[in-house]
Amino acid sequence: MTYKTIMVHMTAGGANRPRIAIAKHLADRLDARLIGIAASEFSPPLYFADGEAGQKMISEGEDAIKASLSQLENEFYRDIDRTTLPCEWRCSRQLPTQYIANEARAADLIVTGRSNSIVFSDAFASADSSDLVMETGRPLLVVPEALSWLDVRSSVVAWKDSAEARRAIVDALPLLKLSKDIAVVGIIEGEAIPKDVAERQIRDVIGWLGRHDITASPVVVDAQGQPGEQLEQIAADLGAGLIVAGAYGHSRLREWVFGGVTRYLLQSSERCVLLSR
Question: Are residues 159 and 139 located together in one domain of the fold?
């Protein structure tokens, strides 16, 4: 298994350069095709004018979206050498999450930015990573704004014996094959599972990775404080540049409700995170 097509999600006013750099680096290493993608839809104001004034407002709004998407296309191609890397650009004037979820059928991996827990996300202008991980059906590589390259020399797999974690580790195989040091980490919360059972499960995972020619070591610890922060600290102590984890969440009305670890990784991790659901 490998990634043959990598899709990078871009947003107006967003930190696009780190995402492009990491997506390009992966495409170069894995001999993959690169797709840049963006979408935006006109958002009518709360008090909408009618008649000629209303039509003018719509036209100006649509022209601004068209110009913004064109600028993003130029930004994408500015850093891509089309003579050596197969690539293409896709965009549309529609809701970003819906558009990217549909176009995700063409990709093995989607590279995007981190969710913003402070600033309200405009669903007309950008797709939030929390929505993408739930709706695309593809693994999501979440890139913090401060990073410009993906350090996969060391990686951490957050293990929980669940369908989401199993999907994530399978989806991450192409990246794990690039890593020299891999730790499969189990954090024991209370009495949810005996430690010896968790250790046996992780040994199974390490054995499975070994049959894919990937060497890993176990780390099983008791929970101390918030598991998301603890996982981040373990990754920092090991010098890991990548965390692999299952995404746990469900929809409550129109809002995605995530578990603590998933929410932390989407919003606060200082390293790249591969999430699958």
Answer: no
Cα–Cα dist 34/87, whole Å = 5
If asked whether residues 190 and 224 sit together in one domain, one would say yes
Count the Cβ atoms, other than its own, within 10 Å of residue 60: 11
pLDDT score for 191 = 73
Quote the percentage of the chain above a pLDDT of 70.
Answer: 89
pLDDT at 136: 96
pTM, two decimals, is 0.91
Cβ–Cβ < 8 Å for 164, 246:
yes
CA atoms within 13 A on the CB side of 128: 18
Tokens describing residue 256: 């995605």
Whether 263 is covered by a domain: the verdict is yes
* Inside any domain, residue 149: no
Range of the domain at 60: 5-143
Residue 223 CB coordination number (10 Å): 12
DSSP code of 8?
Answer: E
